[in-house]
Each structure stands twice: as C-alpha cells, then as structure tokens.
C-alpha cells in the first residue's frame, strides 16, 4: 500500500481516477470488468470494562469480491489473520460483541496488462459517495 498525498491545496477528485485509468489504457491495458471490496474497522462493545483485556481492542475486516463466502479479520495486537465464513459478520452483529467504527468501499475496474492485472478504483465511505482516496493494485497472473 502506497499512501500518496496530493500537493497542498489540491483535493482528490474523480478526475484523477479517470486520468489514472486512461494511463493504464494508453499502455495497452485491456479493461476486463469491475470489482468491489469492503473494508471495515471494528471496535468491541464491552458490557463490563473488567473484560476489556480478553478482547482485541480493534480489528480490521475485509470482504473480497473474488471470495464472496469468506470474511478476513486482522487482529493487529496479536499479529493474526483469521479467515472465516462470510456469516461471521452477522454473528458478531447478533451477539453485539463488535460494531463497525467505519467502513470503506473500494470499487473500480481491472485491466489486463500483459502478464499483470491492474486494478484502479475509488475509495469511498460506505455511508456516502465522498471520494476519500484512490486505490491501485498490480499483481502477476499465474
């Protein structure tokens, strides 16, 4: 992940996303379709503060379009990645053990560029359409 900050006084807007997509196409990138992933940051809903040490303070959750039946959790303090069924989110909501602090949708298009897949997309909060960032992913096809 590369964190990029625009120059002072400049804002991130959809025009930048269009320009990045055009750049990929200009070097013979072939648009193959769309993609969408959701990333959530969770915090515990503790009923008793005495139990606080037993639960991870915060964790990161990811739902990926390529694996719709899976849900991934990253527990940062424990340095642990957990793969679960997608129903895990519903279980946590029903148990009222964790709640979403905030969630982001990343969506856009993916391109084939030789032996590589390039994804270009926007990052928006789940509850609005305000552009918060741009994501670009490059990976090698096997």
From TrEMBL:
InterPro entries: Mediator_Med20. Belongs to the Mediator complex subunit 20 family. It comes from Solanum lycopersicum (Tomato). Keywords: Activator, Nucleus, Transcription, Transcription regulation. One of its GO terms (biological process) is regulation of transcription by RNA polymerase II. Component of the Mediator complex. This is Mediator of RNA polymerase II transcription subunit 20. GO terms for molecular function: transcription coactivator activity. It comes from the Eukaryota. Component of the Mediator complex, a coactivator involved in the regulated transcription of nearly all RNA polymerase II-dependent genes. Mediator functions as a bridge to convey information from gene-specific regulatory proteins to the basal RNA polymerase II transcription machinery. Mediator is recruited to promoters by direct interactions with regulatory proteins and serves as a scaffold for the assembly of a functional preinitiation complex with RNA polymerase II and the general transcription factors. The keyword Transcription applies. It is found in: Nucleus. Pfam families: Med20. GO terms for cellular component: mediator complex.
